[in-house]
Design brief:
By secondary structure, the protein is mainly alpha-helical. It is built from 16 helices and no strands. The radius of gyration is 22 Å and the shape is globular.
């Protein structure tokens, strides 16, 4: 006999959306514009205007500049959590996708021009395996381990939060585009990144705990306005590779670069946090990555890369692109950070407020 649902059950109201307009009610607020391109996109998203930047305007933009990268970051974020006042349907707005395509073309052409290219994956991976003798390197993690004060560590965590609070999400897009060994190994690594089934161990959650220990705002996207173009570009690169099936090899190359270099870098950052007197949650995030990513490095080289090349050997050049592009943009960010810090300046576009606990103490004293 056919069963029916009672009118009462059919009409029972469900939970209300947090934003009646259809926006992502728990998403971050929209950032401030950094030029004509980003201003046009932000005004379009809020309904203030209907005209978007033209392809010609985008092609004239600095491919590594603030305006272009804020535009890209905002449009990519529509595929993650979105923004509180923006209708979720904007994710697939054809006009916005057209602007994004033009901006991606400008960015990707500059990245290709800044890398040497080629299809020798082993040669591209080899420098990632070499560590400076005696921790005498000149990179950001070496500086933070040897010299940084708590202010610089807080700035570094604020910048990296744009990625780490969505850690592993961009790389997950490649999974349905792989098969066999590469897919199985990629899922195994991602399983660890997402806490091995335990919400409290999700790496994004661990980074939020780190931020709390440093007195930072743990809200998703809280430091977008403070982040310079060099930081936005590192996150945009992952989104660019992740959202395009044609760049799946480049995303694997990027993933390999991150995983292979993570363990030694994390060891230095954990030591920096201990030296600066950060709390145990701050130290735990990087301590966790020292052990986990040492294992991941072997899996990504022997199973993800080798498995992908076994299935699709013609993607070798794209894997190299992903490795070299990651190095290019990380070096640009490192130059920005180290130049500012060594001159005694903030590396951010705006200085961080005092740690949250000190703000509370100050307010209590004033009261």
């Amino acid at each position: 006999m056919k069963q029916t649902t009672s009118p009462t059950a059919r009409q029972a109201p469900g939970p209300e959306r947090p934003d009646p307009a259809g926006g992502a009610g728990d998403g971050p607020r929209l950032p401030r514009a950094r030029g004509g391109l980003s201003a046009g996109v932000l005004a379009y998203l809020t309904g203030e205007r209907t005209r978007l930047p033209s392809d010609e305007e985008v092609r004239r933009a600095d491919p590594f500049g603030d305006d272009l990268h804020l535009l890209l970051y905002v449009l990519y974020e529509l595929h993650y959590r979105g923004f509180a006042p923006v209708d979720e349907e904007r994710e697939w707005d054809p006009a916005l996708l057209g602007v994004r395509a033009a901006a991606e073309g400008r960015f990707l052409a500059a990245v290709r021009a800044g890398t040497s290219g080629g299809a020798d994956v082993a040669k591209a991976v080899e420098p990632l395996l070499v560590e400076p003798v005696g921790d005498d390197g000149t990179g950001v993690s070496h500086h933070l381990m040897r010299e940084a004060d708590l202010r610089q560590l807080r700035e570094y965590a604020a910048l990296r939060s744009l990625y780490h609070l969505k850690e592993a999400d961009p790389h997950l897009w490649v999974v349905p585009r792989l098969r066999g060994r590469a897919k199985a190994a990629m899922v195994a690594i991602e399983y660890d990144e997402f806490g091995a089934g335990r919400a409290e161990n999700v790496h994004a959650r661990l980074f939020a705990d780190l931020m709390a220990d440093l007195g930072l705002d743990t809200s998703y996207g809280a430091y977008l306005d403070a982040a310079p173009a060099e930081a936005l570009a590192t996150v945009n690169l992952m989104s660019l590779f992740g959202l395009h099936r044609s760049l799946r090899g480049a995303l694997v190359g990027h993933f390999a670069s991150v995983e292979i270099t993570s363990s030694p870098g994390s060891r230095r950052l954990a030591e920096a946090l201990r030296r600066a007197g950060a709390g145990p949650a701050a130290q735990r995030f990087y301590d966790e990555h020292v052990e986990a990513d040492a294992v991941h490095e072997q899996i990504v080289r022997r199973e993800v890369i080798d498995g992908l090349l076994e299935d699709e050997p013609w993607l070798a050049a794209d894997i190299v692109l992903g490795i070299e592009a990651t190095d290019l943009l990380e070096n640009r960010l490192a130059a920005r950070l180290l130049t500012a810090w060594r001159a005694g300046r903030t590396a951010l576009r705006e200085p961080l407020p005092e740690p949250l606990d000190q703000q509370v103490d100050a307010a209590a004293s004033a009261g």
